[in-house]
Amino acid sequence: MTSQRPIVKAVVPVAGLGTRFLPATKATPKEMLPVVDKPAIQYVVEEAQAAGIIDLLFVTGRNKDALENHFDRAPNLEHALLDKGATALHDELMRIAELAHIHYVRQGNPLGLGHAVSMAKSHVGDSPFVVMLGDDLIDSRTPILPAMIEAYEKHGGSILALMEVPESEIHLYGCAAVEPTDNPDVVRVTGLIEKPHISEAPSNLAVIGRYLLQPEIFDVLAEQEPGRGGEIQLTDALAKLAEAPELAGGVHAVIFRGRRYDTGDKLSYLKSVFQVALDREDVGPDLRAWITSYLAGNV
Ligand code: G1P
Fold first, then answer.
1. The ligand 1 atom nearest the CA atom of 228
2. N or C: which end of the chain has fewer CB within 10 A?
3. What is d(CA 276, CA 271) in angstroms, rounded to the nearest whole number?
Protein backbone atom coordinates (compact mmCIF):
# COMPACT_ATOMS: atom_id res chain seq x y z
CA MET A 1 0.00 0.00 0.00
CA THR A 2 1.14 3.49 -0.74
CA SER A 3 1.01 6.36 1.72
CA GLN A 4 0.65 8.91 -1.09
CA ARG A 5 -2.67 10.59 -1.72
CA PRO A 6 -4.46 9.08 -4.75
CA ILE A 7 -4.72 10.92 -8.06
CA VAL A 8 -8.37 11.45 -8.94
CA LYS A 9 -8.42 14.66 -10.97
CA ALA A 10 -7.01 15.75 -14.30
CA VAL A 11 -6.72 19.26 -15.69
CA VAL A 12 -6.89 19.59 -19.48
CA PRO A 13 -5.98 23.01 -20.90
CA VAL A 14 -8.05 23.56 -24.07
CA ALA A 15 -8.15 27.34 -24.38
CA GLY A 16 -5.60 27.66 -27.20
CA LEU A 17 -6.64 29.60 -30.30
CA GLY A 18 -5.41 26.95 -32.71
CA THR A 19 -3.81 29.56 -34.96
CA ARG A 20 -1.56 26.95 -36.63
CA PHE A 21 -4.66 25.31 -38.10
CA LEU A 22 -6.55 28.38 -39.32
CA PRO A 23 -8.90 28.57 -41.12
CA ALA A 24 -9.97 25.06 -40.00
CA THR A 25 -10.06 26.31 -36.42
CA LYS A 26 -11.91 29.56 -37.01
CA ALA A 27 -15.21 28.10 -35.76
CA THR A 28 -14.04 24.67 -34.54
CA PRO A 29 -11.73 24.11 -31.57
CA LYS A 30 -8.45 22.50 -32.62
CA GLU A 31 -9.10 19.79 -30.04
CA MET A 32 -12.08 18.70 -32.15
CA LEU A 33 -9.98 18.04 -35.27
CA PRO A 34 -10.48 14.35 -36.06
CA VAL A 35 -7.78 11.73 -35.81
CA VAL A 36 -9.47 9.24 -38.15
CA ASP A 37 -13.02 9.30 -36.70
CA LYS A 38 -12.54 10.61 -33.16
CA PRO A 39 -11.72 14.18 -32.17
CA ALA A 40 -8.21 14.44 -30.73
CA ILE A 41 -9.55 15.39 -27.31
CA GLN A 42 -11.48 12.12 -26.99
CA TYR A 43 -8.22 10.16 -27.02
CA VAL A 44 -7.06 12.23 -24.03
CA VAL A 45 -10.28 11.65 -22.09
CA GLU A 46 -10.10 7.91 -22.83
CA GLU A 47 -6.47 7.85 -21.69
CA ALA A 48 -7.45 9.44 -18.37
CA GLN A 49 -10.33 7.01 -17.92
CA ALA A 50 -8.03 4.04 -18.62
CA ALA A 51 -5.81 5.30 -15.77
CA GLY A 52 -8.83 5.49 -13.44
CA ILE A 53 -9.12 9.30 -13.62
CA ILE A 54 -12.67 10.39 -14.47
CA ASP A 55 -12.87 13.84 -12.83
CA LEU A 56 -11.62 16.19 -15.53
CA LEU A 57 -11.43 19.96 -15.55
CA PHE A 58 -11.26 21.52 -19.01
CA VAL A 59 -9.71 24.98 -18.95
CA THR A 60 -11.54 26.50 -21.90
CA GLY A 61 -11.94 29.80 -23.70
CA ARG A 62 -14.23 31.31 -26.31
CA ASN A 63 -15.60 29.17 -29.14
CA LYS A 64 -15.17 25.92 -27.27
CA ASP A 65 -18.86 24.91 -27.07
CA ALA A 66 -18.22 21.97 -29.38
CA LEU A 67 -16.07 20.35 -26.68
CA GLU A 68 -18.91 20.52 -24.16
CA ASN A 69 -21.38 19.18 -26.71
CA HIS A 70 -19.11 16.31 -27.67
CA PHE A 71 -19.00 14.89 -24.15
CA ASP A 72 -22.66 15.60 -23.39
CA ARG A 73 -25.78 13.56 -24.14
CA ALA A 74 -27.44 14.33 -27.50
CA PRO A 75 -31.05 13.10 -27.13
CA ASN A 76 -32.24 14.01 -30.63
CA LEU A 77 -29.30 12.32 -32.29
CA GLU A 78 -29.57 9.30 -29.99
CA HIS A 79 -33.26 8.85 -30.87
CA ALA A 80 -32.58 9.30 -34.57
CA LEU A 81 -29.90 6.60 -34.47
CA LEU A 82 -32.18 4.21 -32.60
CA ASP A 83 -35.00 4.86 -35.10
CA LYS A 84 -32.63 3.98 -37.93
CA GLY A 85 -31.49 0.83 -36.17
CA ALA A 86 -27.93 2.18 -35.81
CA THR A 87 -27.57 0.75 -32.32
CA ALA A 88 -23.77 0.38 -32.38
CA LEU A 89 -23.35 4.09 -33.14
CA HIS A 90 -25.98 4.96 -30.55
CA ASP A 91 -24.13 2.92 -27.93
CA GLU A 92 -20.83 4.56 -28.88
CA LEU A 93 -22.34 8.04 -28.38
CA MET A 94 -23.70 6.96 -24.99
CA ARG A 95 -20.27 5.62 -24.04
CA ILE A 96 -18.63 8.94 -24.91
CA ALA A 97 -21.14 10.86 -22.78
CA GLU A 98 -20.34 8.61 -19.83
CA LEU A 99 -16.54 8.54 -20.13
CA ALA A 100 -15.87 11.09 -17.42
CA HIS A 101 -17.27 13.83 -15.22
CA ILE A 102 -16.09 16.89 -17.09
CA HIS A 103 -16.06 20.32 -15.47
CA TYR A 104 -15.29 23.58 -17.19
CA VAL A 105 -13.57 26.79 -16.20
CA ARG A 106 -12.86 29.68 -18.57
CA GLN A 107 -9.35 31.07 -18.80
CA GLY A 108 -10.57 34.45 -20.05
CA ASN A 109 -7.22 35.88 -20.97
CA PRO A 110 -4.89 33.17 -22.29
CA LEU A 111 -1.60 34.10 -20.64
CA GLY A 112 0.17 30.77 -21.09
CA LEU A 113 0.13 27.15 -19.96
CA GLY A 114 1.13 28.03 -16.39
CA HIS A 115 -1.73 30.50 -16.22
CA ALA A 116 -4.17 27.89 -17.59
CA VAL A 117 -3.10 25.42 -14.88
CA SER A 118 -3.46 28.09 -12.20
CA MET A 119 -7.16 28.38 -13.16
CA ALA A 120 -7.66 24.87 -11.73
CA LYS A 121 -6.75 25.88 -8.18
CA SER A 122 -10.22 25.89 -6.61
CA HIS A 123 -11.36 22.74 -8.44
CA VAL A 124 -8.25 20.76 -7.53
CA GLY A 125 -8.01 21.90 -3.92
CA ASP A 126 -5.30 20.38 -1.77
CA SER A 127 -4.65 17.17 -3.70
CA PRO A 128 -2.12 16.08 -6.31
CA PHE A 129 -3.50 16.00 -9.85
CA VAL A 130 -2.46 15.39 -13.41
CA VAL A 131 -2.29 17.82 -16.32
CA MET A 132 -2.85 16.42 -19.79
CA LEU A 133 -2.11 18.48 -22.91
CA GLY A 134 -4.39 17.79 -25.84
CA ASP A 135 -1.67 18.18 -28.49
CA ASP A 136 0.06 15.05 -27.23
CA LEU A 137 -1.75 11.77 -27.80
CA ILE A 138 -0.30 8.69 -26.13
CA ASP A 139 -0.92 5.33 -27.80
CA SER A 140 -3.20 3.29 -25.54
CA ARG A 141 -0.90 0.28 -26.01
CA THR A 142 1.98 2.16 -24.34
CA PRO A 143 0.35 4.23 -21.59
CA ILE A 144 2.40 6.67 -19.52
CA LEU A 145 0.08 7.69 -16.66
CA PRO A 146 0.36 4.36 -14.76
CA ALA A 147 4.18 4.62 -14.76
CA MET A 148 3.97 8.24 -13.57
CA ILE A 149 1.61 7.29 -10.75
CA GLU A 150 3.96 4.44 -9.78
CA ALA A 151 6.93 6.83 -9.71
CA TYR A 152 4.89 9.23 -7.57
CA GLU A 153 4.03 6.46 -5.11
CA LYS A 154 7.75 5.74 -4.76
CA HIS A 155 9.26 9.24 -4.81
CA GLY A 156 6.39 11.64 -4.00
CA GLY A 157 6.61 15.22 -5.29
CA SER A 158 5.96 16.09 -8.93
CA ILE A 159 6.41 13.67 -11.81
CA LEU A 160 7.04 14.63 -15.44
CA ALA A 161 7.14 12.57 -18.61
CA LEU A 162 10.29 12.98 -20.70
CA MET A 163 11.09 11.72 -24.15
CA GLU A 164 14.38 11.63 -26.02
CA VAL A 165 14.24 13.86 -29.08
CA PRO A 166 16.82 14.73 -31.76
CA GLU A 167 18.97 17.71 -30.68
CA SER A 168 17.55 19.72 -33.55
CA GLU A 169 14.05 19.51 -32.01
CA ILE A 170 14.78 20.33 -28.37
CA HIS A 171 13.99 24.03 -28.93
CA LEU A 172 10.33 23.02 -29.40
CA TYR A 173 9.98 21.63 -25.86
CA GLY A 174 10.68 22.11 -22.21
CA CYS A 175 14.07 20.47 -21.59
CA ALA A 176 15.23 18.75 -18.38
CA ALA A 177 18.56 18.41 -16.61
CA VAL A 178 18.48 15.04 -14.87
CA GLU A 179 20.29 12.62 -12.59
CA PRO A 180 19.81 8.84 -12.71
CA THR A 181 17.92 6.83 -10.07
CA ASP A 182 18.17 3.09 -9.45
CA ASN A 183 15.45 2.63 -12.09
CA PRO A 184 16.66 3.24 -15.69
CA ASP A 185 13.21 4.53 -16.63
CA VAL A 186 12.98 7.11 -13.83
CA VAL A 187 15.26 10.15 -13.35
CA ARG A 188 15.50 12.95 -10.83
CA VAL A 189 14.97 16.33 -12.45
CA THR A 190 17.46 18.95 -11.26
CA GLY A 191 16.58 21.75 -13.66
CA LEU A 192 14.24 22.72 -16.49
CA ILE A 193 14.40 25.23 -19.35
CA GLU A 194 11.45 26.11 -21.59
CA LYS A 195 12.27 25.79 -25.28
CA PRO A 196 16.04 26.30 -24.99
CA HIS A 197 18.37 27.15 -27.84
CA ILE A 198 20.30 24.00 -28.71
CA SER A 199 23.46 25.56 -27.17
CA GLU A 200 21.83 25.92 -23.74
CA ALA A 201 19.89 22.64 -23.65
CA PRO A 202 21.08 20.52 -20.70
CA SER A 203 20.01 17.26 -22.41
CA ASN A 204 17.98 15.85 -25.28
CA LEU A 205 15.15 14.98 -22.89
CA ALA A 206 11.95 16.81 -23.82
CA VAL A 207 8.97 17.39 -21.55
CA ILE A 208 5.86 15.82 -23.07
CA GLY A 209 2.34 16.84 -22.21
CA ARG A 210 1.63 14.75 -19.12
CA TYR A 211 2.39 16.14 -15.65
CA LEU A 212 1.62 14.87 -12.15
CA LEU A 213 1.65 17.92 -9.93
CA GLN A 214 1.36 18.82 -6.27
CA PRO A 215 -1.03 21.59 -5.17
CA GLU A 216 2.00 23.70 -4.11
CA ILE A 217 2.41 24.46 -7.81
CA PHE A 218 -0.42 26.98 -7.48
CA ASP A 219 1.57 29.12 -5.03
CA VAL A 220 4.57 29.08 -7.35
CA LEU A 221 2.42 29.90 -10.39
CA ALA A 222 0.81 32.82 -8.57
CA GLU A 223 4.26 34.42 -8.27
CA GLN A 224 5.55 33.32 -11.65
CA GLU A 225 6.89 36.04 -13.93
CA PRO A 226 6.23 35.74 -17.68
CA GLY A 227 8.90 33.69 -19.43
CA ARG A 228 9.44 32.42 -22.98
CA GLY A 229 7.06 34.17 -25.40
CA GLY A 230 5.92 36.54 -22.65
CA GLU A 231 3.76 33.72 -21.22
CA ILE A 232 3.43 32.31 -17.70
CA GLN A 233 5.25 29.03 -18.27
CA LEU A 234 4.49 25.85 -16.31
CA THR A 235 8.06 24.75 -17.03
CA ASP A 236 9.46 27.79 -15.18
CA ALA A 237 7.32 27.07 -12.11
CA LEU A 238 8.41 23.42 -12.16
CA ALA A 239 12.04 24.51 -12.47
CA LYS A 240 11.67 26.24 -9.11
CA LEU A 241 10.29 23.06 -7.53
CA ALA A 242 13.10 21.01 -9.09
CA GLU A 243 15.75 23.36 -7.75
CA ALA A 244 14.21 23.48 -4.25
CA PRO A 245 13.00 19.93 -3.39
CA GLU A 246 12.14 21.07 0.15
CA LEU A 247 9.23 23.13 -1.27
CA ALA A 248 7.08 20.28 -2.60
CA GLY A 249 9.02 17.03 -2.62
CA GLY A 250 11.15 17.65 -5.70
CA VAL A 251 10.60 16.58 -9.29
CA HIS A 252 11.16 13.17 -10.90
CA ALA A 253 10.37 12.02 -14.42
CA VAL A 254 9.49 8.85 -16.24
CA ILE A 255 11.29 8.33 -19.54
CA PHE A 256 8.61 7.59 -22.10
CA ARG A 257 9.66 5.07 -24.74
CA GLY A 258 6.22 4.35 -26.17
CA ARG A 259 4.32 5.86 -29.07
CA ARG A 260 3.18 9.45 -28.98
CA TYR A 261 1.29 11.32 -31.65
CA ASP A 262 1.84 15.04 -31.88
CA THR A 263 -1.18 16.91 -33.20
CA GLY A 264 0.21 20.37 -32.47
CA ASP A 265 1.14 21.45 -35.99
CA LYS A 266 0.00 20.61 -39.50
CA LEU A 267 2.69 18.15 -40.55
CA SER A 268 2.79 16.31 -37.20
CA TYR A 269 -0.99 16.17 -37.19
CA LEU A 270 -1.09 14.62 -40.66
CA LYS A 271 1.56 12.07 -39.66
CA SER A 272 -0.47 11.23 -36.55
CA VAL A 273 -3.63 10.66 -38.58
CA PHE A 274 -1.75 8.33 -40.92
CA GLN A 275 -0.08 6.41 -38.07
CA VAL A 276 -3.35 5.87 -36.23
CA ALA A 277 -5.23 5.01 -39.43
CA LEU A 278 -2.59 2.53 -40.62
CA ASP A 279 -2.89 0.69 -37.29
CA ARG A 280 -6.66 0.42 -37.52
CA GLU A 281 -8.15 -2.88 -38.66
CA ASP A 282 -11.05 -1.25 -40.48
CA VAL A 283 -9.14 1.20 -42.69
CA GLY A 284 -5.44 0.30 -42.19
CA PRO A 285 -4.89 -2.46 -44.79
CA ASP A 286 -6.68 -0.61 -47.60
CA LEU A 287 -4.96 2.67 -46.75
CA ARG A 288 -1.55 0.98 -46.74
CA ALA A 289 -2.18 -0.60 -50.14
CA TRP A 290 -3.41 2.73 -51.52
CA ILE A 291 -0.41 4.69 -50.20
CA THR A 292 2.02 2.18 -51.69
CA SER A 293 0.26 2.37 -54.99
CA TYR A 294 0.01 6.16 -54.83
CA LEU A 295 3.71 6.59 -54.08
CA ALA A 296 4.54 4.24 -56.96
CA GLY A 297 2.64 6.64 -59.21
CA ASN A 298 -0.17 4.20 -59.95
CA VAL A 299 -3.09 6.26 -58.64
C1 G1P B 1 4.14 22.92 -23.93
C2 G1P B 1 5.14 23.12 -22.78
C3 G1P B 1 6.47 22.50 -23.15
C4 G1P B 1 6.26 21.02 -23.49
C5 G1P B 1 5.22 20.88 -24.59
C6 G1P B 1 4.86 19.41 -24.81
O7 G1P B 1 4.58 23.67 -25.03
O8 G1P B 1 5.30 24.51 -22.53
O9 G1P B 1 7.37 22.60 -22.07
O10 G1P B 1 7.49 20.45 -23.89
O11 G1P B 1 3.99 21.55 -24.26
O12 G1P B 1 4.00 19.23 -25.87
P13 G1P B 1 3.63 23.98 -26.32
O14 G1P B 1 3.85 22.83 -27.24
O15 G1P B 1 2.24 24.07 -25.81
O16 G1P B 1 4.16 25.25 -26.88
1. 8
2. N
3. 9
